[in-house]
Design goal:
This protein is mainly alpha-helical. The protein has a single domain (12-169), classed as Jann2411-like domain (Jann2411-like fold, Orthogonal Bundle). 51% of the residues lie in helices and 11% in strands. The chain is built from seven helices and six strands, in the order αββααααββαββα. It has a two-stranded antiparallel sheet. The protein has a two-stranded antiparallel sheet with strand order 3-4. Strands 5-6 form a two-stranded antiparallel sheet. A hairpin with a 7-residue loop joins strand 1 (20-21) and strand 2 (29-30). Helix 4 (64-89) crosses helix 5 (96-110).
Amino acid sequence: MNDNYDFESGELCLDFANTNDWHASENPQERLHDYLDLISWGESAGILSAERADRLRRLAARLPEDASTAYERAIEFREALFSLFSAISNRDDVDKGDLAILNTTLDSALGHQEITISPDGFAWSWDDDPDLERVVWPVARSAADLLTSDLLSRMRRCEDERGCGYLFIDTSRNRSRRWCSMESCGNRAKARRHYARQKDHTG
């Protein structure tokens, strides 16, 4: 299992959208190269148990073409999510095609949810259908929940001019977070501003 995936955005759907590093740049860096990587991500995200992940790996080995198709659809869905949430963050018009891809994925996903008994009463859970596309079901539900919640107003995209593109929920008290982190893009912006001030002072 790959432990190098990032799960710090604050929402599962944004974590998934962030699996393409430098997503808004001309040279994004893919983290999910095939269906097995998709399973690895789902396991790291906690949406696939080790047993479920192993079952999907065995199924993918038996049905490699279907697994490849499931992977391609997952990547198409991820790109739609990135485009959709980027537009919202930038206060741009949402592409109806992106929303259609979300709704198609959501339609498939919700058909696999059911109410089960839990220690605290009742809870939503996913059925046991061995479907190669089940990795994206919780992601679709997460996206729908975020789009219809008050948290959407706190959704941001890193403002680094190089195209970092990292999506996150701004949990700062005054809603002023602009960067994926101060240690990376934030520090670079700070250093750039300092250099500009020094140049103006000496010029």
